[in-house]
Amino acid sequence: MNTSRLQYRDTISKSIVWLLAIPALLVPTIILGYIFWKAAPVLDWDFISGTADGAGFGVTEGIFAQLLGSLLLAVMACVMAAPFALGTALYYRIYASPRQQQLLIVMFNMLQGIPPIVFGLCGLVMLVNLFAWGVSLLSGAVVLAIVLLPLLVLNTLAALERIPLNYTEAGRALGLDSGAIIWRLRLPRSWLNLLTGLLLAMARALSETAPIMFTATVFSGVVWPDSLFSPVTTLQTHIFYLAQEGNNPQVINIAWGSAAVLVLLVAAFGLIARVLKKLEAD
């Protein structure tokens, strides 16, 4: 009797788990399939490699300029944020007291929860208007770097925490100072995990729209940025702009095509990060 009751409970538990898991797996799959189905009429190499003249924001030609603009912003933001994230994480692991460690974790968890549009508004006030950088590649990259900083700090901390403390203790026993411990012990053993976190941050940067709408991008009139103080076009704002033209089926198809390219780009960075993580585990 007890055995049959346990089997019945196990069956009920499995059924509940499946009922909860199937929608979580099925709905994203359906959404991705729908995106690529709608994008199929325009998705080809010419669409990806072509460049519009800037007048129509890629409505009639390719999206290469928007693709490059998105990558430029993401790379610049990661390059700016990575040194500060690494320095903060190393301070946390080596120099900070337990009280300081607790405060840092609370602060960065709180910063990670702030909506990115708030950082975009702050960038608009401070960088675009007060510092007179204008709507530009540099303004957008700085704002994105601030958005990515909490994520990179927490990822870097996770990477450094995988290194056993006895490495540090052994280094100190051998007479190594803190700088030598950082450069000879911690960083060489954690660079793969750090690179994984950087790729995930790239994927996050490519997913952000609101911060760069206020600080970096324009809807038309620009193909390539002439300098750091020139605006750019990006896939994120390209999709936003075209999606408003709901009465033009061709324009909507181009928006779907751009969305599919952006999804593939984010997925590529996530896949590379997963491969690197697997290599680290092996």
* Main sheet summary: none
Low-confidence stretches: none
Distance between the termini: 46 Å
The name of the CATH architecture is Orthogonal Bundle
Shape: globular
Rg, nearest Å: 23 Å
- Quote the average pLDDT: 83
Total strand segments: 0
Strand content: under 5%
So how many helices?
A: 11
CATH class: Mainly Alpha
CATH superfamily: MetI-like
Q: How many structural domains? A: 1
User: What is the name of the CATH topology?
Assistant: MetI-like fold
Describe this structure in words.
With about 280 residues, this protein is mostly helical. The chain has one domain (about 65-280): MetI-like (MetI-like fold), CATH 1.10.3720.10. About 75% of the residues lie in helices and about 0% in strands. It contains eleven helices and no strands. It has helices at about 1-40, 45-50, 65-95, 100-115, 115-130, 135-160, 165-175, 180-205, 210-215, 235-245, 250-280. The protein is globular, with a radius of gyration of 23 Å. The model has no long low-confidence stretch (mean pLDDT about 85).
